[in-house]
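Weekly sync notes, structure subgroup
Attendees: PM, AL, DS (notes)

Item 1: joint prediction request from the bench team. They want all two components modeled as one assembly rather than separately. Inputs as received:
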Amino acid sequence: MLKTFSIGGIHPEENKLSAGNAIKEFHLPEDIKEVKIPVAQHIGAPAQPVVAVGDDVKVGQLLAQAGGFVSANIHSPFSGKVKKIEATTGDDGKPAMMITIAVEGDEWLETIDRSAGIKRDITLSAEEIVKKIGEMGIVGMGGARFPAQVKLAVKPGQAQALIINGVECEPYLTADHRLMLEKSEEILIGVKILMKAIGVSDAYIGIENNKKDAIDLLSKIAASYPGIHVQPLKMKYPQGGEKQLIDACIGRQVASGALPISVGAVVQNVGTAYAVYEAVQKNKPLIERVVCVTGKPLQNPSNFWARIGTPVKALIEAAGGVPEDCEKIIGGGPMMGRAFATIDVPIHKGSSGILLMNKKESKRGEIANCIRCAKCVSVCPMGLEPFLLSKVSAKSLWDMAEENHIADCIECGSCSFTCPSNRPLLDYVRLGKAKVMGIMRARAAAAKAAAEAAKAAEAPKA
Amino acid sequence: MEAVLITIAVLAVLGCVAAVILYFVSQKFKVYEDPKIGEVEEVLPGANCGGCGYAGCHAMAEALAKADDLSGLVCPVGGAPVMSQIAAILGKTVAESAPKLAVVRCGGCLDKRPKTLNYDGAKSCAIASTHFAGDTACSYGCLGLGDCVSVCQFDAIKVNPVTGIAEVDEAKCVACGACAKACPKQIIEIRYKGRVVKDQARRVWVSCVNKDKGAVAMKACKASCIGCGKCAKVCKFDAITIENNVAHIDNEKCKACGMCINECPKQAIAATFTPPAKPAPAEQKPAPAAPADAQAVQQ
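Output from the run, pasted for the record:
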């Protein structure tokens, strides 16, 4: 009996169309002379540009510096001249700050080791590794884009296990799968580096059972890496969720509102492990990633090694172009991804996939009344009641939403997927979650300010 | 028979004792409420819309009874008649306030701002605006999914299916501001109804909030304000300011003369009346007729 997480979950159709296609190096077509690099490619504060218009940049050069504790550096994926630094249309059609680079040649920084060989010896100390990862702008590559160095900054003894997410539970996407097959040893070295950084002796690589080839290959190589265990998992969405994966791999459940470190676990994606290997061993910043361009209407579903900033349109062209019956283009997977408002946008550090959908697939069903079947309750991996939460959100009852733990929602979309009445449950829950989180943050800030004021009032007396 | 009499007697005694206790308790824990609060609440419309800024009509009545003078306290639903009744009850004078209403600051009808995307998510502007900037090229304009319609308690705002934009019914709107709060794009503004000329309230407003630079805004919508500043130049009352590439007409300063309306190259300034004709550029500028009478009265 294979392991999996204990509450809820769904089984969407797999549709891993591009699983058998090796990753192809993507070269920017000749006719593209300019690329745009967003400064907000991660969760947290946007990075602050450190280059000026007119500057020459090389591949790997720092473009923008982390703008806060939860933030990440942005490096240039191309060489050329900085042309503009201004807000242009982002993925959702809203303005987003981007650095435009006029591409000239392909000149790399000399500090980056571009040799083909695998470097196995880890020479840096734990602190140096975390610092390096921060410098190189590594973020969670699974799609959430949480700055990696923040999660790795744990107190000694706090972490007991490292969990590596090789689940790729989103239908269609094959980026992590191909990476595990083609860069297996590098990933394992990356895992070793991460283990050293947080001071643990055990790491579990969770891989769903539909990727048997990856499980076999990694298990074989992991035999010579003591402490790294490959954990085959039963297929179930959303197993790639941090809390779900911890439950599935080591059987510990993270309490409501708590972080994974509270049960001694740190979770990172396989893509992140590979990026960490390149950053620490090869001194290479995060400037490229695997992007899976897929979808039923697409001619050649493919996996590409693409530099950050490559236009989405160019990648789709390389996979056969936008077909006529394409109705929706999504950044990410079908469950958690978001539709592009325009495809004249660049890919970013979290672009695991570009998914094209035809009319039949993308159309939402007619919304009917809730029949109280409680399917949404039984599939919710966080044990919430989506029918209730969506209703209280629609009625702006934020107190009630908070009492019912709306902030625990991981926005996986299982509820909307399973609803027989096609109700837009997640849409409302997401709205309510954002409101409630805002209220909670404001309250925390007010409490902090009050505590500080009390402290300041007390100080002169003492 | 005897048992019945004893029961009645016991109950009677118990009743009397309880009545005495209750009397003293009610005296001891009596909460005094100004009887005027109740009277004022009776007069208030009871819509509990929150347009006055208080949680409901009772809270408003309390505030009115407590206040030394009634300036700043206006029931937008009842308006002047209700406020004068309240003033009579409380024996205070009521501050004169000009009637207001909600104004939708978007003029991008479907023919001026065609749809570029299909949105089939939940029918809510708040949700749609978390997903993307809008289903047209303009990321500031009305989404037309009707969050304002669902919060309006007076049936005063509707999304016109032809234009795809929310429209306010002047006769029904009470300026409670619920729609302005609900609009995630913040395009609804509460403005004066305007001075009445020949049974028609005259008001002028910039019907656009697009903050993009002129060239970008122009591409997005044929009726967008491009921040050219022509209206600000022509305004005799310094009522128009350009900020973030969009014009705004100061509600207090505007005399609704209408000079700016024809000046706008994009027809982004809307009004409830036909503006005076734009003077031909070659001719010597005739003294505009409108400002003269505009100065005389406001609202």
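Discussion: Chain B is about 35% helix and 15% strand.
Action: AL to compare against the crosslinking data before next sync.
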